[in-house]
Amino acid sequence: MDEAAFRSGICAIVGRPNVGKSTLLNAILGEKVAITTPVPQTTRHAIRGIHTTADAQIVFIDTPGIHKPRTLLGSRLNDVAQGALDGVDLVVFVVDGDGGVGRGDAYLAEVLAESGVPLIGVLNKVDRLSRNGQLPALAALAELGEFDEIVPISARRGEQVELLVDLINQRLPEGPPLYPLDITTDSDQAQRIAEIVREKAMVAMREEVPHSIAVLVDEAGPGRTDGVTAIFASIYVERDSQKGIVIGRQGAVLARIGTAARPEIEALVGTPVYLDLRVKLMKEWQRDPKKLDSLGY
């Protein structure tokens, strides 16, 4: 590889909750490294996705949606998102074309302007808009700040995603790869397993306790059967009444969560999986700094 001609850099994906940041990252990478649900504030960590081609490497940082926090966890998620702006070469600012540009987008645009980092504006979910409907949404996005480019996309359908990647590549500084060429994320396996379980639990609990759920992998290793990986994980809730909701009648909901999670975990670890899920109580963990620390937030 001719390192003099190679480009590399860090690009943060920023936006309000539920605008499609994680869906966009997965579409760019062609594989799932960030969980996605219809529930706002699904992303809780700054997840790095690494896109490498013959002449460039982009390290994407998928950030939690910046929002008005109601808990200590919410405040910490905002800190994670804003901290991700430090040292980046470029920011992709995503807005929801279907939901419309609003005050939250305007506030975030002001934060980004203060950072002084080059911006590409992305109008996502254009598959839900008519051609005529896109024009006022694009104009509203353009009014938010000084953008190098503005790109309408559908992350869900992959429309214009390749164009966006090309525009990012053009703005990277020359330099060697920042990560090995054959990896797509620096998240460790235990964290990815925990996130898969949390995603399935959030989907199952969409109308009830999604934000009260946290997941930790307690143990992972060879199972009792040759070629099987045994994974023991805990699903934490904040109130005793939530345990019964997550478990369900005769364990039906917990079994459904495990059934949905197992195929993705098996694809990740490369073996059949024995998955043991337990539901545990950690009272008001979203508001307790020590408990948040213990859960990795």
Count of individual domains: 2
Q: On the 0-100 scale, what is the average pLDDT?
A: 91
Share of residues in strands:
15-25%
Gross geometry = globular
CATH class designation of the largest domain: Alpha Beta
Helix and strand pattern: EHEEHEHEHEHHEEHHEH
Strand order of the largest sheet: 2-3-1-4-5-6
Low-confidence stretches: none
The biggest beta sheet, please?
Answer: 6 strands, mixed
Level-2 CATH architecture of the largest domain: 3-Layer(aba) Sandwich
Strands, total number: 9
Rg for CA atoms:
20 Å
Helix- and strand-based class? alpha/beta
CATH-assigned homologous superfamily of the largest domain: P-loop containing nucleotide triphosphate hydrolases
Helix content: 25-40%
Which fold name is given in CATH as the topology of the largest domain?
A: Rossmann fold
How far apart lie the N and C ends?
39 Å
Task: Give keywords.
alpha/beta, 9 strands, GMP Synthetase, Chain A, domain 3, Rossmann fold
What does this structure look like?
The chain has 297 residues and is α/β, with parallel strands linked by helices. The chain has two domains: 3-170, Rossmann fold (3-Layer(aba) Sandwich); 189-294, K homology (KH) domain (GMP Synthetase, Chain A, domain 3), CATH 3.30.300.20. Helix content is 35%, strand content 22%. The protein has a six-stranded mixed sheet with strand order 2-3-1-4-5-6, with helices on both faces. Helix 6 (189-204) runs antiparallel to helix 8 (252-269). It is globular, with a radius of gyration of 20 Å. The two termini are 39 Å apart. The model has no long low-confidence stretch (mean pLDDT 91).
